[in-house]
Amino acid sequence: MTMPTPTPVQSNIPAMLDAARRSFEIFLRVECGLRPNSLDAYHRDITEALAFFTEAGITKPDQITPRLLSDHLQHLSANRGLAGSSVVRHLATIRVFCRWLHAMGLIEDNPADILDRPSSWQKLPGVLSPSQMRRLLDAPREPDDPKPSAPPLWIRDRAILELMYASGLRASEVGAVGLNDFIPDTGLIKITGKGDKQRLVPVGRPAMDAVQTYLNLCRPMLLMAADSPTDRLFLSRTGRPLERVALWQIVKKYAKIAGLSDVHPHTLRHSFATHLLSGGADLRVVQDLLGHADIATTQIYTHVDSDRLRTIHRQFHPRA
Asked: Is 219 annotated in the active site?
C-alpha cells in the first residue's frame, strides 16, 4: 500500500507511525464514511496510543506488541484515571486500527488479537499504599477537649477502620456483624456476605485490640442511649445499629484528616486484597477471604500489582 508522504506532527510521532495513522484516517473517512465526530474520536485515541508507543521507543507499526498495547490500556486507567467506558473506547479503536494494519500488510501478526474483549474490561480499583493506610488508621484520635460524659466515638471509628482493612470487609458486612460473630479467642470473625453466605476471616492483632477497646470503653456508653437492646457490634451515637451510609461518612471523615482523596469503604477492601497478593498470598486464599463466588472477580487485583511483578521478573529471571 502507498502511504502519504510523512509530514511533521506536534507529538513527534515517528514518520512511519504517523503515515500509518493518516492512511488509516483516510480509510475511515473515504471507505467507511464515518461522520466528523467519530473521525475526531478515532484521531484522538490513535494519536494518544502512538505517542505512548513513541515514548517506548517504537518507530514502525511492526514493532507494536500485545504487551505494549496492554501497558497502554493500563496507563489510561491507572495513570490517566479514565473511566472504564473511556478505556473500552480506546481498546475498540486499537483493535480496529490493528486489524487495518494487518489487512494492509503493514504488520505480520495482529497484536490486538489476544487482548480482552471490551465487554470484559474493568477499571482497576483504587488502592492505598501501606504508608497511606497507616495514616488513615492513625487518623482517629482523642480530641483535645474530650467530654467525660460523651461516648469516645473515635475509639469506635478506629476499630471500624482497623477491622475493615484487617479482614477486607464490605461496608454492609461491617454493619451486620453481631457481638457473637466476633471471636477473640480464635482471632476470627464470622461474616455474612452476599447471598447470606457465611465465611470465617482472620483478624490481625491491631484490629483485635482496637475492637476489644471499643467493647470495653465505648459500646457500653452507646448502648445506654438505645431504645431497645441490640446484638450488633457497632452502634451509632443513638445506640442503634450503624447504617451503611454512616460507615461511608466515617471513612470519608478520616481520609480527609489523613490528607487522602477519593477514599471510600471499598478502598480499604481493595487495599486489603492487593497488599495480601503483594506479600505472596495465593489468589484462591484471597478469593475465600473476600467471599468471591468467582475467582475471575478476584483476578482484577493481580493487575493492580503488575509493577511489582515486573520488578520481580527482571530481578530473578535469567533472560529478563
From this structure: no
Looking at the DSSP bridge assignments, the partners of residue 154 are: none
Go through the domains of the chain in sequence order and give each one's CATH number: 15-120 (1.10.150.130), 130-312 (1.10.443.10)
Q: Which of 286, 312, 254, 273 is nearest to 126 (CA)?
A: 273
> What are the pLDDT digits (tens) for 253-263?
999 999 998 89
The question of whether 147 is a catalytic residue gets the answer no
Residues 290/274, Cβ–Cβ less than 8 Å: no
Residue 217 and residue 155 in contact, taking contact as beta carbons nearer than 8 Å: yes
What's the pLDDT tens digit per position in 26-49?
999 888 888 888 889 899 999 999
Q: Is 214 a catalytic residue?
A: no
For 168, left (φ over 0), alpha (ψ -120 to 50), or beta? Answer: left
- Angle, CA of 277, 282 and 288, to the nearest 5°: 100
Cα-based distances in Å from 19 to 91, 194, 230? 21, 53, 71
Give the count of beta carbons closer than 10 Å to the beta carbon of residue 241: 17
What is each CA distance from 51 to 12, 25, 107, 302, 310, in whole angstroms? 8, 16, 19, 27, 22
pLDDT for 304: 58
Q: How many residues does the chain have?
A: 320
Q: Report the sign of the C-alpha dihedral through residues 103, 108, 111, 117, in that order.
A: positive
Identify which of 24, 30, 68 has the alpha carbon closest to the alpha carbon of residue 42: 24
Contact between 163 and 212 under an 8 Å Cβ cutoff? The reply is no
Helix 153-167, helix 265-278: angle, nearest 10: 40
Maximum alpha-carbon separation in the chain = 84
Q: How far apart are CA 147 and CA 155, in angstroms?
A: 14
Q: Tell me if residue 190 is catalytic.
A: no
Q: Is 170 marked active-site?
A: yes
Annotated catalytic residue, options 21, 90, 269, 275: 269
Instruction: Judge whether 275 counts as a catalytic residue.
Output: no
Catalytic annotation, pick one of 29, 244, 252, 292: 292
